[in-house]
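To fix ideas, we quote verbatim one protein's residues and fold tokens.
>
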Amino acid sequence: MSQKILFVDDDLNILQAFQRQLRKHFTLDTAPGGREGLEMLAEHGPYAVVVADMRMPEMDGIEFLIQVAEKAPDTVRMMLTGNADQQTAAEAVNKGQVFQFLTKPCPPESLRQVLENGLNQHRLIRAEKELLENTLNGSIRVLTDILSMVDTQAFGRGQKLKEYLKTFADSFQAYDTWELELAAMLSPIGYVTIPAELMLKVRSDSVLSSAEKDILARVPEVGSRLIESIPRLDKVARIVHYQNKNYDGSGFPPGSVKGEEIPIGSRILKILVDLIRYEDQGLPRFKALGKLQSFEGLYDPDVLKSIVANSDVPEVVTKERLPIEVHELRISDILASDIETSEGLRLVGAGTTITQLTIEQVHNFNRIGGIKTPIFVLAEPTNA
């Protein structure tokens, strides 16, 4: 974690004074202006604390700190100025998002204490961020691992949906990609609550009762509840909740929400899910997209138009099917065919990306009853 401090001031005498007074206590860098300060930030950062003078030529302190906030949001920002009017202070706080406002001349002991406070604030910011990120990443990993164990088909659909988001990435440049990709992976998480008997009926196209249909319809709602308890995933939970909502307001969940009121991520996922479904049925992409365009009221017309416009992206180079044995299965392998037990039970579906839990599951089944081999995974084509 960085503990460096950057002082930016066009007065070289002041910068030299800072170096003399503070170099025994802190790791300091200096820059004689805003442009130079940004160069230092890019080349020698990150910095825990940045202190900028207000009155500087070319780029004043507020403009400089605004750019610091954009480029290094975790850096604690401070303003040092000889002009302590209320308007300047308000602009520094509101626009530059400064942690503390200092006036010249600032006694060395006072400045030392302020810098210590700034370093402590930076440590708190980083600690909270790391805690949130670790909690977030760990929670997501647990959910996806559970899904991969309980319902490999649903897990595979989530992975395929995430790949389609990458395929049509140019269509979604205006949206938060990480939330979309996360919603794609977690969109089927509600299936972990569906009884195994019901999932067997669904996969065999058996007739379902009204109660069973209602259980399936509420899968997004259940998934949303599981996700919304994780810090920072409230938007992802809402995307998952409305993933089956039609643009005209029909579909699940019932209610008056429609059109632009439906989360944009939900509108995107709905189109891609149905596109995947039609392609899995054997339709080429242009025909699948044409089928989507033939329906009125189901899809956001602007999103669908953008996806159609980007549908001519180059196809990924076709990979070869590589036969392997159970002990050769590796994390991140992509299955080219189903993994089945010796009795013909499909254990993991084709297209699934292998995780550590998948490997353990396959090895356990292999020890008990055996796995059909060879297993086929995708591999880069070999040069002739």
About this structure: DSSP finds 15 helices and nine strands in the chain.
